[in-house]
Design brief:
CATH topology of the largest domain: Growth Hormone, Chain: A
Number of strands: 2
CATH architecture of the largest domain: Up-down Bundle
CATH superfamily of the largest domain: MFS general substrate transporter like domains
Distance between the termini: 10 Å
Largest sheet: 2 strands, antiparallel
Structural class: mainly alpha
Number of domains: 2
Number of helices: 16
Shape: globular
Length: about 425
């Protein structure tokens, strides 16, 4: 049985500042808002720039592509210069790039600004999780990560609601400028906390050999693992079918039922509350359902939810549907995350980076494809297709995971299969 890797800090090490993890959660909150802030305003952007809904969705695709690709770079940077310091400086960069989105005078300028905004935001969540893994002992790590996850979940859901409300009442530019100001405040807090960190929490690791060659070698060894390829392909298709569809829920409610963008964004916000329910009940769900049950039922809940939104006769059916979709998503995705940390234990950093990269590149591909589908079948076709795709992906992974567990039963740590 492989023991969990030891954190760099031990119980005898100097304690962490009280705000160390909450500050990272605030950075993840801002990153989540940035990711989803353009979902609800797509009709407004299409109108203001005289482009189609599918073309307007390029602002989501550009952010996700840059976010996915930049994941591969920030891991080595965090090791070389210190993860907490890199996160703080990335927030400074995010303040600039996000503000540039609000100042864009043409659609091409907005696309370029969203591209660089995605690249800078990519550092925040993965490096935060890696830093927590470095400094928090394994026995106490799960609740710390759960608290950190709440910031990300609420940021994702608030971003959609905030974008819709602003598109109706303030214009789409103001949220970007407000988020930019928020990043400034978060960066100030992060730098203040960084100065208080004990030496063990600011450790750096010199690079060995040529950085690019080392990075390529790390990822090649991850891809050499058959199960790693299964997990990476699964998370890519999950991102494509789920978030490629999710980005158009607010647009669907606005164009089909005529609800305001503010109301549509508020409805989608219930997705985050479903994720919050999972965070609070995850221990019970994992114990009762296991990995196979979580992925199977997670996919079923997502598919039913997307079908409900797409085929509902009245708009308010989307409220419970989005809530259930959030619960189902985190049931499925959290299980994939667990597998990502175990699919190549000797190359865990590269494995998690590859996982995050595939997830966001899948989102980018899904949004681009869904944008094209809207021109022919409308948003209803997007929702139905997404439901079918997520269901197939989840059931296939559940089947394959069950086969693996039958062949080689997994050890249990703290009641959870690893």
């Amino acid at each position: 049985m492989r023991h969990a890797p030891q954190s760099r800090m031990t119980e005898s090490s100097s304690p962490l500042p009280r705000m160390a993890v909450p500050a990272l959660s605030l950075a993840a909150f801002a990153s989540g808002i940035s990711l989803r802030i353009t979902d609800a305003p797509l009709p407004r952007l299409a109108h203001d720039f005289s482009v189609s809904i599918g073309q307007a969705a390029g602002v989501i695709t550009a952010f996700a592509v840059a976010y996915g690709l930049a994941q591969l770079l920030f891991g080595p940077l965090g090791d070389r210069f210190g993860k907490y310091r890199v996160i703080a400086w990335a927030c400074v960069a995010c303040a600039v790039t996000t503000s540039l989105c609000g100042l864009a005078q043409s659609f091409s300028q907005l696309l370029a600004a969203r591209l660089v905004a995605g690249a800078t935001a990519a550092a925040l969540i993965p490096l935060s999780m890696a830093w927590i893994g470095d400094v928090v002992p394994y026995a106490r790590r799960q609740p710390v990560l759960a608290r950190f996850l709440i910031g990300q979940i609420m940021g994702l859901s608030l971003g959609v609601s905030m974008g819709g409300f602003a598109a109706d009442y303030w214009g789409w530019r103001l949220p970007f400028l407000a988020i930019g100001g928020g990043y400034v405040l978060v960066s100030v807090l992060l730098f203040a906390v960084h100065r208080q960190l004990p030496a063990q929490a600011r450790q750096t690791r010199p690079s060995l050999g040529h950085p690019l060659r080392s990075m390529v070698n790390e990822f090649a060894q991850v891809l050499a693992q058959p199960w790693a390829r299964v997990v990476l392909l699964t998370v890519f298709t999950e991102g494509a079918f789920l978030y490629g569809t999710f980005a158009f829920i607010a647009t669907h409610l606005h164009t089909v039922f005529g609800v305001s963008l503010a109301t549509a964004g508020s409805v989608v916000m219930w997705f985050g509350f479903g994720g919050l329910l999972f965070a609070l009940c995850s221990a019970t769900l994992v114990r009762r359902l296991g990995e196979v049950g979580l992925t199977c039922w997670g996919g079923i809940l997502i598919a039913l939810s997307l079908l409900t939104v797409g085929l509902a006769p009245v708009w308010w059916w989307a409220i419970p549907a989005c809530f259930v979709a959030g619960l189902g998503f985190y049931m499925l995705h959290n299980t994939l995350q667990i597998n990502a940390t175990q699919m190549a234990p000797e190359r865990r950093g590269a494995a998690v980076s590859a996982f995050a990269s595939c997830f966001f590149l899948g989102q980018a591909a899904g949004v681009a494809a869904a944008g094209a589908v809207t021109a022919y079948g409308g948003t209803q076709a997007v929702l139905v297709t997404g439901a079918a795709g997520v269901l197939v992906v989840a059931l296939n992974f559940s089947r394959m995971r069950a086969a693996v567990l039958r062949q080689a039963p997994q050890p249990v740590v703290d009641g959870t299969k690893v």
